[in-house]
Description:
Blueprint: H1 18-48, H2 73-77, H3 92-95, E1 104-109, E2 115-118, H4 119-125, E3 129-136, E4 141-151, H5 152-159, E5 167-172, E6 195-199, H6 200-204, E7 209-214, E8 217-218, E9 228-230, E10 243-249, H7 256-260, E11 284-287, E12 292-295, H8 303-306
Parallel strand pairs: 1-10, 4-11
Antiparallel strand pairs: 1-2, 3-4, 4-7, 5-6, 5-10, 7-8, 7-9, 11-12
The structure holds ligand MTE.
Amino acid sequence: MLIKQRKGWEITESRVTPEHMFLNRRAFMGTAASAVAVLSAGAARAEDDPSAGLYPVKLNPTYADAGRPVTPLEINRAYNNYYEFGTSKQIYDAAEALPIRPWSVVIDGEVEAPVTLAIDDLLKKVQLEERIYRHRCVEAWSMVVPWTGFTLKSLVEMAKPKAAAKFVRFETFNKPEIAVGQQPGLFSSYPWPYVEGLTMAEAMNDLSFLVTGAYGKPLPKSMGSPIRLHLPWKYGFKSIKGIVKISFVTERPIGMWEAIQSSEYGFWANVNPEVSHPRWSQAMEEVLGTGERVPTQLFNGYGAFVAGLYSGLENEPLYM
Length: 320
Ligand code: MTE
């Protein structure tokens, strides 16, 4: 049964007005200051990650300039969406409860040989690189993040999908004993685990990036450690965190938000300033940490890489 309810990460219309941004700035600066304390407490934990020796890695020159300054780590760490750990943007501490070793990723479905790979074995098989990407949330805020990871394309090639595979389905862990959002209560009606999906063509696009690190270190748990996706031309909810399963499937996967409210969150979710969310405009975005609002760009400015993926699909709801 689909339950009409407002998701915690949805903003009210006032959240996207310039007035609100102005009023919010003082609160935001306070958040940033407390994040510095969180950061210093968390620094040792990042070093404890068994993959720490792999970072930093070489920056890919194709993705070295996002056209805006990188969002400072302390701003990013204080402003995350990870509903498994609650509704607040400050889920850094709550996410620390997630054990990230041992951690395996199942690769299954329409592939020559399904496999379960321990994260450190997977990391040995891939070519890590750094990419600086713009990151645009459906809530009309954005950041610029220096991710480290590897192309989804390289994982697809490793998985050897059969011709029957038409989509890739991603699934997050389901650990109600650790993740407060998955416990009976506020979000227990959500169809956990978090799921997202892509077409095979989208998965094979060079931009599709499996992320294991950020800011030259292993990924903080709050940002989706040990492995998440980042799709810079799509709204952030497509960029699933804490991945445990990647399945090659014949049917279009239904993402968790689409399952909850398909009139507002669809499969494609490509960024478009001209297509409003049913309850707010997408024309502008707040660049976190700068106090600026800037015009949103079609495909978040990555059209040269991805627009061709959608020719012939004009009748699809590509922008929700
Ligand atoms: N993945 C999981 N598993 N759970 C979530 O709640 N939130 C999504 C996406 N991936 C989410 C998730 C949303 S709404 C956004 S905007 C981005 O993660 C936020 O990524 P960030 O916190 O690194 O900025």
